[in-house]
Amino acid sequence: MSLGEGLTPLVPAERIGKVLDVPHLVIKDESRNPTWSHKDRFSTVAVSAALNQGAKVVATASSGNAGASLAAYAAKAGLQCVVATFAGAASAMISQIRAYGASVFPMARKTDRWALLEKAADQLGWFVTSPYHHPVVGSHPIGIEGYKTLAYEIVDQSGDHLPDWCVLPVCYGDALAGLAAGFHELLEMGKISRVPRLVAAEVHGSLSAALESGHDRIEEQNQAFETVAVSIGTTRSTYQALKALRDTRGCAVCVSNDQIKSMQGMLAAKEGIFAELASVAPLVAVRCLREQQVIAQGDRVVAVVTASGLKDLDISVDASRKERPFESVDDAWKWALERTAAAPGVRVRV
User: Fold this and answer.
1) How far is 249 from 241, CA to CA, in rounded Å?
2) 208 near 215, Cβ under 8 Å?
3) Pick from 4, 17, 8: nearest CA to 271
4) Rounded CA gap, 234 and 55, in Å?
């Protein structure tokens, strides 16, 4: 069941790479997928599996991207879709979910979503693609197979220049685990000579703490602040994510709201890619690791930008900011001359 997902571009990012002191930086732009996020790689496989199993309803617990993607593929397949979400989810993504005809269940408490889906799976036979037990172990394993295609494409598009690092925004680590599995399969097949090191850009630090302690258990972290990166805002990640990092000699980096907001604007202004707030977290992590000299200047780095900035405009954009209209062409022309004259290296003819 396909909507034309995948084969997203691997875009050289020389300008932002210069700022981050990572000359060989490229961006895997997953916003080019049908519902504008990497979740489409998961949904194409998960919905196909649901059809094969005779399911009538697919369901997920989602803050936005996963729900929007599942709803679109369910619509294509002629299946009913239910998305259990929570207060505070980005309104643009909720509108997108509803546009595909899905039923949205907003829950006052996040964890109630799981209780609802568990009951529906047991009693109604819903095909649930997201986690619905605590502690979380990840989404439906069949769907996660779809993320292997990220590894296949990165290797194919990189040619003779296999990246040293691949950096992703991470919540429960579905894409991280799928990417690691894809790279390891390619290694076993002799298609690559080594596996790139993976990095999880996270918010509250559960993976960072587990890597530092050396333990297998992922501990719940204190929520020190309300993150604008809603898509990766969990206080507890999963063992699958931790294993992917360990298996690839990877690491995890915590990112802040100020860093994310600044990076979103920089990426758009310098590379023409307007990404969701959570999706620029990998670039924040790259900057941090380069400053710590974990990433060397000559390393080749792939930052996976997972979703479009149109997804969370109500969070990322200052609603109070309004442009004053020009009263005349003369007023607009005067402003244009002043702005052009201020630009470096520009000569103005009058």
Assistant:
1) 12
2) no
3) 17
4) 29
Dihedral, 232, 250, 294, 37 alpha carbons, nearest 10: -40
From the CB of residue 23, how many other CB atoms can be counted at a distance below 10 Å?
14
State the Cα–Cα distance between residues 306 and 312, nearest whole angstrom.
13
In this prediction, residues 210-231 reach a mean pLDDT of: 93
Q: Could you tell me the end-to-end alpha-carbon distance of the chain, in angstroms, rounded to an integer? A: 59
What is the per-residue burial (b if ≥16 Cβ within 10 Å, else e) of 45-68?
bbbbbbbeeebebbbbbbbbbbbb
Name 132's Cβ contacts closer than 8 Å, sequence gap at least 6: 61, 113, 114, 115, 117, 118, 121
- Could you tell me if 183 and 264 are in contact, meaning their C-beta atoms sit under 8 angstroms apart? no
- Please check whether residue 306 is in contact with residue 279, taking contact to mean a CB–CB distance below 8 angstroms: yes
pLDDT of 17-29, one tens digit each? 999 999 999 999 9
Closest Cα partner for 239 from 273, 274, 200? 200
Q: How far apart are CA 263 and CA 273, in angstroms?
A: 11
Residue 348 has pLDDT above 60, yes or no: no
- Distance between alpha carbon 333 and the CA centroid of its chain, in Å? 41
Assign 3-state DSSP to the chain and report helix, strand, coil percentages, each to 5: 45, 15, 40
pLDDT at 72: 98
Convert the pLDDT of each residue in 126-159 to its tens digit.
Answer: 999 999 888 889 999 999 999 999 999 999 999 9
Mean pLDDT value across residues 221-245 = 94
Report the amino acid identity of residue 103. Answer: S
Distance (Å, whole) CA 221 – CA 204? 6
- Using an 8 Å Cβ cutoff, are 67 and 102 in contact? yes
Q: Around 93, how many Cα atoms within 13 Å sit in the side-chain half-sphere?
A: 31
